Each structure stands twice: as structure tokens, then as C-alpha cells.
Amino acid sequence: MLDTIREIETPEGISLHLRAAGALPRAQAWTVDLFLRMGVFMLAAIPLSLFGVGGKGLALLLLFALMWAYSVVCEVWLGGQTLGKRALGLRVVNADGTPVTWLPSVVRNLLRVVDALPGVYGVGLISTLIDPHARRLGDIVAGTMVIHVSELPAGQQVPSQAAVPLPVVLVADEQAALVEFAERSGQLTPQRQEELANLLTPLTGRNDSAAVRQLIGHANWLLGRP
Q: Can you point out the beta strands (E) in the chain?
């Protein structure tokens, strides 16, 4: 039930550290989501009941969407976070630290049926206690894990951009500095970004905004992104 650290090395040798969330914060996030869904259903079910059989049918469709589609849609569209996970500072990612996509999210949420057996998430709890990265069965099968947002691995904040291979080989410290620049670029003014990027004109062969884009492309390549 304790949080654990998972270290991942990209194909280019960058080490990423993911702090996996234990069973307790995950259970708290699930509880928040449960109450939110119950609240939405109850608020909608009262007026829908006034429309007879048709209203009851719509209420059942809403219940189905809240139970099955809510988590998948939130995880894919809200950066791996349901509202409960966001409140607890958690996020679902692929096991390699990349953002979760539709198929893994669907698989992990469908397998909640198994994790919930024989009641109160018995299988899921045992799985999180046995697995070194506190994953329930659904996460193991889907290749996902739940981590703490405050402990996102280096590179998670790098803007998504087409990867550009490096023209020369950089040592580990130089690679880490390049990734850190790309990760923090969003916190810098465009002028400061260009000022720093221009220092690496010998590497990029570009200046100003073109140099910034080139460095971000190199960072994506170092992180093993397409």
C-alpha cells in the first residue's frame, strides 16, 4: 500500500523516475469519483423520472455512461486524470511514462470488474500489495500505472513535437540539460527561450524561434518519442 519508485530508461539513456501511487490514495480518488457520479446521477434522475418509461431509459443510459465511459473519457481527455484523481494529485500514464491512450484506458477500466471481486476491490487490493509498483490487475494487463502528479518524470512537460535526431552525440549531462530546457520552455518568455537557444546555434544550426523548435524536437527524440 506504500508508494514506490519506478525507474525507466528511454532508448537514448535518459532516466525517468515515476512515483507510483499506493492503494490508499487510489482508493480515496475512487471514492471521490464515486460520490461525484452518484451526485450527478441523482440530480439527473429526478427530472428524468417525470418523463415515464423514456425518462427511465435515459436515466439508465446515463448510469451506464457514468459507470463505464466516465473514467475512460476523463483519462484520455484530461491528461490521465478523473476528477477524483485530480483532487488527490494522481495521474494514469502508460508504464513507460507516456500519456495514456484510448486502448489502455479502456482495458484497465473494463478489468475493474475482475479487480472488484469478490467485493470491495479484493483482487485489486491484493494485486497492489503484490506488484512492486502497486498496480491492480487492470493496470498490469493494460500496461499502465497510477503516479503522483507532483512526481511526474522529467520530460512529461516537454511540448509535443516531431522528434528530431541529434546531429552529434551528447554526454548524459548535456542530454539532461537539453530535456530540462524543453521541459521549462513553457515557463519562459519567448525572448528568453530564444536567448538560451541561440547559445546552442552550433548544435542546431538555427537561430531564434527556429532554434527553440529544433531543441524541443531534439528533446522529444531523446525521450524516445516519434
A: 4-9, 15-20, 90-94, 144-148
Helices (H), 49-168: 52-64, 70-77, 83-88, 102-110, 112-115, 122-130, 137-142
**d(Cα 208, Cα 92) in Å, to the nearest integer?**
36
- How high does pLDDT run on average in the chain? 85
CA distance between the termini of the chain: 35
| 104 vs 129: CA distance, rounded Å | 22
Sign of CA dihedral 58, 63, 68, 73: positive
Nearest Cα residue to 160 out of 79, 85, 103, 83: 79
Please, what's the b/e burial string for 137-168 (b: 16 or more CB within 10 A of its CB; e: otherwise)? Answer: bbbbebebbbbbbebbbbbbebeebeebebee
> What region does 132 belong to: left with phi over 0, alpha with psi -120 to 50, or beta?
alpha
Q: What is the pLDDT of residues 75-86, one digit of tens each?
A: 999 989 999 999
Question: What is the rounded distance in angstroms from the CA atom of residue 156 to the CA atom of residue 208?
Answer: 24
Mean pLDDT throughout 88-97? 88
Phi, psi of 26 (to 5 degrees): -70, -40
Choose among 189, 104, 187, 186: nearest CA to 141: 104
**How many other CB atoms are found less than 10 A from the CB of residue 91?**
26
The three cell numbers locating residue 3: 508508494
